[in-house]
Specification:
335 residues, alpha+beta, 4-stranded antiparallel sheet, 10 strands
Length: 335
Amino acid sequence: MKGPYPGQVLTVVGLDSNNGIYPLAYAIVKAETKSSWSCFLECLGEDLELSTNSNFTFIYDRKKGILPAIANLFPTAEHRFCLQHIHENMKLQWRGKEHKDHLWKCATTTTIRHFDRFMEDFKKFNSKAYDWLKKIPPEWVRAHISGRAHTNILLNNLCEVFSSKLLDARDKPIITYKSQGPLTPTTTKLLDGVKKNASQYTCIFNGADKTQVTGTMGEQFVVNWRDKNCSCWHWEIIRIPCSHLVSAIWDKVEHGAKNVPPLEEWVGRPEKKRKRAQTKEPKNQGKSLTRMVLTVTCSKFKNKGYNTRSCKEQGGQNEVRNVVAGGKKLSKEKK
């Protein structure tokens, strides 16, 4: 960051299917340390649903803190070192086009045999530069890319190009919210309006898990404490408590209920993962692109592979193997 706003911008950039730059995530931290990188990468792993055994590859410039953070959070991930940064460090001692050409020949080879040969050529050209390069782990060489890492990228230009687009914004202030409580000003304002409406409702205890809430016009709603929902569906849609829930919370507290969470804790985002219902039809129902194959079962003898009409136990001669759901014709009979 530039200007009066200190800090560092951490970014993760990937490639899309068109080989274009795709920003994945960014964060503003005080400094590049192991703790800041660990926090950032942990959030990234949750958003992308990455596990310790996921097949993915990081390429980076070996900045302070990032290597131990990745090794701790993603021990099986592939590592790539940016060749450009290795060359920049090499130029501090050995300059010239010949040094660069030798470096790129070693890095772009795809077999260990050719890599060893080019390294020997580099050793003959400059033994000191060879010894310096030999100390760096071979994660900058294509020949050392394992079969799990499907990439031939040697440069970290993705992040460099993305960072260049942020130059004009680095001296801008970070957007912050000033609020007296744990919620944002907008949410606090909405919740205040909900509280005002909640005072107009009356509540009736309706069992251990439910509360019936009645309005001034006779309208009735049910708050289900076990499933955490209200029959008005306002709470489920925007995850801000509805006036019926607020009225029910006040009623429980008034009647001596304990361990009732504060109203602010009922505010929150919906779950990220959506589970498909068991009875929900598959996509492209009735089309040939996506079809679900089911095995038929004899309703009389409970044997799989044929139906009652073609049941072998009854001497039937018809044989039905599978039924394809989604088509017009559900079964194919062979006499």
